[in-house]
Amino acid sequence: MGAVCGKGSGEGNEAAISTRVEGITGGGGGGGKKALPKLPTNAIKSVPEDHQFIEESLARILLFSKLDSGLQRKIVAEMYERNVQAGEILINEGDTGLAATELYIVKSGIFEVLQRRQGQNVRVNLKQRGDCFGEISLMYDCARNATVAATVESVVWVMDRAVFRYFVREQQENQVSQVELFLNSVPILGSLSRDERMRLVDAIEEVVYQQGQKVITEGDNGDLFYIIKEGEALVFQGQGQRKVNHLFKADFFGERALLNDEPRIATVEASTKLVCLTLKRDTFTEILGPLEQLMKREKSPQVVAQKLAKLQPRGSNQRPAAEVLIKRKKKGKNGVESWEVVRAKGHLDEVQELRKGGSMAVDPEAKDANTLVLTEGTVLGGGAFSRVSIVNEDSTGRVYALKRMRKSAVVQCPEHVYCEQAITKNVAHPFCIRQYASFQDKYHLYFLFDLMSGGDLMDVLVAEAKVINRRVPESSWQVACLAPNVKMLQGMSEELAKFYIASVLLALEYLHNNNIVYRDLKPENVFIDVNGHVKLGDFGFAKILDSGNRTYTFCGTPGYVAPENVLAHGYNFSVDWWGLGVVMYVLLTGRQPFSTPKTDDPMVVMRRIVDENYVVKYPPYISPAAKDLISRLLERKPARRIGMLSGRATDVKKHKWFEGFNWAEMEARRNIAPRKPRESDINKRIKELMETERRTAGKTPKETPEELAECEAVFSDF
Ligand code: ADP
Ligand code: MG
């Protein structure tokens, strides 16, 4: 069944449900984030009992002490031990490059620090347990300024620059996207240009409050506004009498301070340790000018026109354009291969970013250094209107996944395409697919994504599912060995499913923290990379919900939609937790929870979803803990559904099905994926896809000139 979209669909409204027009994948934001660098094979990681000691030792290191505690912990957990024999030289004075990328802390033993003075090695210092050296190597390539040798058998903890940088960069990217999401959600800031936004992002400062500390006090004058980065806060009114709100990560308060100098209308108190990003009114006006002017600008004819232009038909594209050439091999009638070149229109900023660091020869077809040249390779997937293939970027040699959608197929729901385009620009998370660029030609829209060459979770399920024989007692008093032998379908193992469900859970937690509801969870939208790790993709239905807001659009895939979605009651993040429950059921059983007795009618399935009397059946091989978690996720009342309760995502992480699961490792993507995509599976898949391609070749619909004109108008801002 395909995914669907429509407004307020419900019983008797089947006509409103169109089969999902081929969608959109996405993820990403920021520029060129790399994977967490690998530690050397055989590296022995620092043990948790040592972490506090290491953190204390590192407190003296400037770069490190400036990081927030969560990040410090992540980095310390990535440090590993190295044994150094007595007399062995750990650092050589003058060494550069790879020999100068590590910082060390002495775990045990003694080191002498030697410097060459007039041809002689002079001992200038001794280092022992807790001492650090090599800080500068975390910053840049700098020759070692001394030799360090062990005088007895010793052990050091090692921190690699690449690992350190990785986390620092991740934090910054996350911070920028958090602030950007905030800026996007304040109506009066709607007219800011990207440049103005970035300047505000840069002006933001971090402030830490201890538990119980007051952040702002009712009645006081204030000129700061706050976004919560870490921790929680409570809001009181009536001089601390009345608790009126509970704020979490990504919530913001005090924004009135930006508008005027009225006294604060509430008191906000840190209910845990609280880290806030703050912006001063002065800074704000410095960057954007007086607010009255900004408000005027909001109502100015240009801005009004801009806003109208966001509704169809769309206005002109304001981002500078750049050319994208897509080259593909084509077989002529006589069997001779030739190159076909498609010229598409992209965005200059993205093209320049993609070509950064590229040194290879640029295709002669390219007019100038601002042209992106992509060469198409194998097809990776797709449906009726979309097609995903591997492409090679000419100047850097990097490979990506290129998704192509037929404009005429998505022209009825353009807001999804635009939403996805905007959201995936801001999403930066290891479990969400990144989008690097978008562009279009006359007939198609394109997205350039992280390459996930291992297929999707449905492929894994198909490969892992098997028919088993199981004795099922017909009643409780029947002796098990006499019970009839029943053939039944079993999905993947619970261990394997746990890895996938945990990955998706982390992606959802991140999205929800950033006010994004995903709305189309299903195995087909969870993609697998070469190593077997997974990322959530296909953000075609994702949407930003302003704090406390609900959305009413009917959206999703029939077997996976939540009751509140079907009933158009207005919903928010709850639908994703329901979706997770359905996915978990599907992975474990190979079937959908609302599909028995078998039916092809999506409306029958959706009636069962809302019907309190329809009871989901669990095959006997499912563990009690798994069954319990699924049933809590498939709770029909959103307010009672796990994931929506006070602990939010944490409640799901703490469920007994995940007992003993290493979340820290998972979050850092340090764990080895339990299943690597098999080469044979991938090849088989590709063969099937090429087969389908061949069969459907030339069968693409021909648009009328009117349709083409409509597509052009609707997607002119893409
Ligand atoms: P649709 O909106 O048509 O469902 P998807 O974005 O889900 O499109 O992509 C369709 C299929 O293409 C996926 O199921 C997957 O097999 C493949 N695919 C999509 N994105 C990627 C990617 N980034 N890397 C590799 N394969 C992909
Ligand atoms: Mg999909």
TrEMBL record:
| UniProt keyword annotation of Transferase present | yes
Top-level lineage group: Eukaryota
> Which keywords belong to this entry?
ATP-binding, cGMP, cGMP-binding, Kinase, Nucleotide-binding, Serine/threonine-protein kinase, Transferase
Q: Name one GO cellular component term.
A: cAMP-dependent protein kinase complex
User: Which ranges carry the Protein kinase domain?
Assistant: 374-658
SMART domains on file: cNMP (SM00100), S_TKc (SM00220)
Residues holding ATP: 403
> What segment(s) does the record annotate as region Disordered?
674-708
Protein name listed in UniProt? Uncharacterized protein
Native source organism of the sequence: Chlamydomonas eustigma
